[in-house]
Amino acid sequence: MMGSAGDTLPEGVREELRAKAEELGRAVAARGLVLLTGATTGLPRLVAGAARAAGALHVGVSPAVSEREHTQVFQYPTDNCDLIVYTGFGLKGRNVVLVRSCDVVVFVRGSMGALNEFTIAHDEGRVIGCLTGTGGVADEAPHLLRAFPKDTGARVFHDDDPARLLDACLGALSQPVRGEGG
Questions:
Q1: 135: domain range?
Q2: Where are the alpha helices (DSSP H) in the chain?
Q3: Which one of 8, 114, 122, 157 is most buried, counting C-beta atoms within 10 A?
C-alpha cells in the first residue's frame, strides 16, 4: 500500500481519509492478504494499523540500513510492523524494493514519493489500484496515464470503495497478462 505519509489536511478531509484508510486496512485483513508498506507515517500507517488490528500481517520496507537509522534519521515508527526489512537503499531505492515485492500496488492519495512508486509499478506492469476520492496520485492517475501513455501491461483500477477496489485488483491477478499463458 502506497500513499501520503505526511499530509497536513483540513479536519473534515482528514477524518474522511482516516476512515477510508482504515476501511482499506480491514479489507486487506478480511481477504487474508499480507500488507506491505514503506514502514512510514501518515496514511500507510493508518492502513497498517487497521489491517493489523483485524489480523493481517504487516511487513514494512524501510529505506534505512538499521532500526536506529529508521527511527532517528527517517523518524519512522516501528511499533505497527510485524516485520521490517531494512533495505539501506534510501527512499527511491526502497520504493523499487517495495513495489517489486507486491503483487498488487494500491494508492491512497499520494504525493511525490507515491508518484515515484506509481511510475515504478506502471513500468513493472503491475496490477495497480487507485482509491479515488482521496486526492493526489490516486485521483491524478488517469490524467497521468493519458498524458504519458506507455503500454507496459500494467492494469490500473480506480474505485472509491476500498473493498471493491481490492476485489478488482485481486481478480486481475488471476487473468493472464498480455503475452502470458494460452
A1: 2-173
A2: 11-30, 42-53, 67-72, 90-100, 112-123, 136-147, 162-173
A3: 114
125: left (phi over 0), alpha (psi -120 to 50) or beta: left
Q: pLDDT at position 182, please?
A: 42
Give the pLDDT confidence of 53-72 residue by residue, as tens digits: 999 999 999 999 999 999 99
Mean pLDDT of the chain: 93
CA distance 138 to 114: 9
Asked whether residue 37 is assigned to any structural domain, the reply reads: yes
User: Residue 12 is part of a domain; what is its CATH number?
Assistant: 3.40.50.450
Cα–Cα distance, 94 to 37 (Å, whole number) = 10
* Number of neighbouring beta carbons within 10 Å of residue 15: 11
Q: Is residue 180 assigned to a domain? A: no
Q: Is the residue at 182 inside a domain?
A: no
Closest CA to 23 of 175, 177, 179, 133: 133
